[in-house]
Amino acid sequence: MAALAPAMFLASFGISLATVALPTLARTFSASVGEVQWIVLAYLLSATVTVVLAGRLGDLIGPRTVLLAGIAIFAAASGLCAAAPSLGALVAARAAQGVGGAILMALPISLARATVPEARTGAAMGMFGTMSAIGTALGPSLGGIVISAFGWRAAFVLVAIVAGALLAVAARLVPAAPAPQRAEPAGLGLASAVPLAVALAAYALLAAGGNAGVPLGPWLLALVAAASLALFLAVDGRAATPLVPLTIVREPAIGAALAMNVVVATVMMATLVVGPFFLAFALGLDEAVVGLVMAVGPVTAALAGVPAGRVTDRFGAPRVLAAGLCVIVAGLVGLALLPRIMGVAGYVAALILLTPGFQLFLAGNNTAMMLAAPADRRGTVSGLLALSRNLGFMTGASAMGALFAAALGGRAAQEAAPQAVGAAFTTTFLAAAGLAAVALAAMGVSLAQRSVKTAKR
Question: Whole-prediction pTM value?
Answer without folding.
Answer: 0.78
